[in-house]
Structure formats: structure tokens, C-alpha cells
Amino acid sequence: MSVCEKYYPSEPSKPSVVTSSIPGPESQRALQKLGQVFDARPAYFMGDYEKSLGNYLVDADGNTFLDLYAQISSIALGYNNPALIKAAQSPEMIRALVDRPALGNFPSKDLEGILSKILKFAPKGQTHIWSGLSGADANELAFKAAFMYYRSKARGYETPFSAEENKTVMENSTPGSPDLAVLSFKRAFHGRLFASGSVTCSKPIHKLDFPAFDWPHAEYPSYQYPLADNETANRTEDDRCLKIVEDIISSWPIPVAALIIEPIQSEGGDNHASKYFLQSLRDITTKHGVVYIIDEVQTGVGATGKMWCHEWAELQPPADLVTFSKKFQSAGYFFHDPKFIPNQPYRQFNTWCGDPARMIIAGAIGQEVADNKLVEQCARVGDYLFEKLEKLQSQYPDKFQNLRGKHRGTFIAWDLPSPAERDAFLKHLKLAGCNVGGCSTHSVRLRPSLTFDEKHADIFVNALTNVVSKL
Fold first, then answer.
1. Which among 19, 94, 157, 288 is most buried, taking Cβ atoms within 10 Å?
2. CATH of range 101-354; options 3.30.360.10, 3.40.50.720, 3.40.710.10, 3.40.640.10
3. Catalytic hit among 189, 328, 335, 452
4. In the chain, where are the structural domains located?
5. What pLDDT digit, counting tens, does each position of 231-252 carry?
6. Residue 228's pLDDT band (cuts 50, 70, 90)
7. Which of 326, 327, 399, 430 is catalytic?
8. Do 101-354 and 3-81+374-470 fall under one CATH topology?
9. Do 227 and 237 meet the contact criterion of CB atoms below 8 Å apart?
10. How far is CA 226 from CA 38, 387, 408, 461, in A?
11. For 10-26, how does the pLDDT look when each residue is reduced to its tens digit (9 = 90+)?
12. How far apart, in whole angstroms, are the C-alpha atoms of residue 206 and residue 253?
């Protein structure tokens, strides 16, 4: 019995679309009503999560979609997963929801056990955790940790703050509020808050109209595909981008305290970084005393055929901070150096210090992933699906440009010739019963749950073949 059959014996056997357009009339009515109290303009359709099951998402009109988007890569185990429902009904969950503690001041007696269940699945080399509320929050908390660490190294970890620092910080001026930068990459997406917005460089709409820090963006490698046929050109591209990184660190007007990178830029177009590039960044950041932050918000928790995507790079030494959210249903960052714990209390702090209810779910997700070998399944199914997509690419090369993600689980993407063609492609896929997302301007990205298996891949490829043959 497959893990999907174990979880979802009543999962639909295939998609079913009963409306002639999406969103259908019921979704349109519901979204219009919702729009009176909430900005519903980005919505594709209104979901019916009570009826959704496993790898199938049902909408308000009764359309049943094979879901390869999974709430923007956030559903690890499919809809209405019985193991997560069991965790949601536990006594510790009731306490977390009803008596939500202010964890910094009044941690619950079960908090250490809850966190230890997440730490079991931390990236290799990481031993500590700090919790947040979302992916953007996780990244901003990581920046705070990086800045405090960077300044503590310069000042001396046990050295008290000076009178001048205490005075000037209240005036938002130096040295209490130091001029420091975080280096990120063009096409990156790290969130939509203020500091995370300053390191985001994917689309203008993500950050228009709010102030930004004067922080630099280096170039992320643009590879030629297939990778095996373009090793020399791609190594040259890596070296070109690495030189830019080191030049920025050496010449930026204010010190670069931290560097943040996605091992695969997701919103920015599913751009993959090589093992060589990620390790070379580790070498550069170590050389210059820059904190190395890996953003695993979208790539983490098994979807790339490793629990954490950057583990493909086997970094030595490990990254300083690794942020997470999405498929873990919780958020925060992992670290290993105790000096990333601020030298005084109340520096990395807020009322809730994360959400224990979401932490409980994260621990349950990690355990299910491990017990059911879902990372291995994702790797196997991804290879199976990629081979089928390569065959389609040979038939329709114009519709499958830069097919990428080989041996990276189901973290697969390709490009269409133009944004309009990509958008039409996604629309036709929905009408064919497959909910698929895009990224950047003309890329298609696949983000199914970890319970997606070969039978789902076959259904998707059949629908994809029908769509592409008609366009």
C-alpha cells in the first residue's frame, strides 16, 4: 500500500471540472462577497477545504483539481491529513490554542518537548532554533540575530553597551543604530516586510511605495540547460557571480554583515544554485566575517529530494542561520553557534515568540515525513516525472524551455516563450483539472505535496500533453 492510499483511501481517482470557466459562478459570487471585507482580487477561486482530500483541491463550484501548487508550496502531506488532524486534536494543541502563552516570559512546561520534535529534523549541523510567525518574519528575525552577532564580535561579546550607544539608538543614529547591510541577490524573494522587502528583488509589486534600506543585490547565476551539457559555461557563470559578490562585500559603503540566499530562487523563476556556488559563498562569507543565511522557506521540508535543499551542497562549515516556514506550517530559523543567542535578554523577543500550535503541527509533519520516507518518495517521483517531461520537451521544445529541477525531487520548472503564453498555459491547465502555479514572468513551477506519487504524475502528464498539443 502506498503512503497516499494509507492516508487517503477515498482520494479522488482523477480531476473533475464541471464549470466552463475558472473561477466558476459560485466562486465568483463568494469572492465578490468576500471582497467587501477582504482584498480578494488575487484569488484564483474559492476553496472548499472540507471537501478537499489528499492531492486534490475542491473549489466552491465542485471542481476537483489535482493540486500541484499546494497553497504556494505550503502543504506537505496533502489536504485533511489524518495524522495532522490527530495532532490538532491533542491536549497540548488545545492548551496552545486556548491559552496561547507568551513564550518568552511564560513558556509552557511542554515547550521544550515541542521544540525538540522540530529540532529532530533540523538541517545537518544545526542544533538550536528560534521561532517566528511567517517566512518573512523568520528572515527578519535572522537579520536581527546576524546584526547583533556581528556587532557583538566587534564590541566583545561580554562588553556592555556604551553610554553613547544607549543614547544614539534612541535617536536612530550611529553608533547605537549602526550602518550595516545584508547582501542578497537579484530576482530573490525573501518576504514583503520592511527588511525582507529590502532583500527582495523579484517583482516591483512586492515592494513598491515603502522605504527600503540601502542594501546591495548581487547577481544570481543564470545557467544553461541541460546542466550536464553545459558544465563549462555554467562554471564560468558561477565564477562571474562570485566575483561580483566578493567585490560588493569589499567595496560597499557600509559593512556587509550578512548574506542571504535561496538555494533555489522560487518566486524569482526557479533559479537553481549549484553546489559549487553555495560552497563558494560559504568560503567567501567565512573569509570576510559575513553571516551566511540560507533561506529555506520554500525549498525546505523534502520537496527537493533532501529534507533541506542546501544539504545537496554539503556545506563546510554549515551555514550560520537557516530560515524555514511553509511546508513546516511553522516558522523560524535554525543555528548552531550559541553566540547567535543575544548577550542580553529581551533583544530577540516579542509577545508570543512564535506559535506553539504551529510548532506542534511542524513536529508532526516532520515525523510523518520521516516515518513514511516521504523525502525518498519525492526524490523517486520527481525523477519519474522529470523523465516524462523531458520526452514532452523533445516533442514541444518551444513550450518547455529551460526545463530544470532534474534530481531535485518535484521542485521542477520550465519556461514559456512569453508571459502571456505562460498565463494562458496555466489557465488551460486549470480547465484540464490541474492547479499549477507560475513564478517570475514566464515560468511554470511544480509544487505538489510530498504524498504526490507516480499515479498523480501520470494524470498530470496526460493533462499536460492534451493542453500543450492544443496550444
1. 19
2. 3.40.640.10
3. 189
4. 3-81+374-470, 101-354
5. 999 999 999 999 999 999 999 9
6. very high
7. 326
8. no
9. no
10. 44, 13, 14, 20
11. 999 999 999 999 999 99
12. 26
Query: Please, are residues 259 and 245 in contact by the beta-carbon 8 Å criterion?
Result: yes
| Secondary structure of 213-230 in HEC code, one letter for each residue | CCCCEECCCCCCCCHHHC
- Nine cell digits for residue 102: 507568551
Nearest to 61 by CA among 33, 34, 22: 22
Question: Across-strand partners of 57?
Answer: 65
Comparing CA positions, the residue from 347, 352, 334, 331 lying closest to residue 107 is 352
| CA 429 to the chain's CA centroid | 23
DSSP state at residue 319 = P
Catalytic residue among 127, 174, 286, 351: 351
Tell me, yes or no, if 283 is annotated catalytic: no
Write down the catalytic residue from 295, 355, 415, 453: 295
What proportions of the chain, in percent to the nearest 5, are helix, strand and coil? 40, 15, 45
Note if 127 is an active site residue.
no
458 is catalytic: no
CB 461 within 8 Å of CB 395: no
Q: Name every residue whose Cβ is closer than 8 Å to that of residue 133 and which is 6 or more positions away in sequence.
A: 331, 352, 354, 355
* 371-387 per-position pLDDT tens digit: 999 999 999 999 999 99
> Is residue 307 classed as helix, strand or coil in its secondary structure?
coil
The CA distances from residue 87 to 357, 361, 373, in Å, are 10, 7, 19
Whole-angstrom distance, CA of residue 127 vs CA of residue 116: 10
Give the separation between CA 40 and CA 468, rounded to whole angstroms.
30
351 tagged catalytic? yes
Q: Looking at the whole model, is its pTM more than 0.90?
A: yes
Residue 1 pLDDT level (bands cut at 50, 70, 90): confident
- Which overall architecture, per CATH, does domain 3-81+374-470 show? Alpha-Beta Complex (3.90)
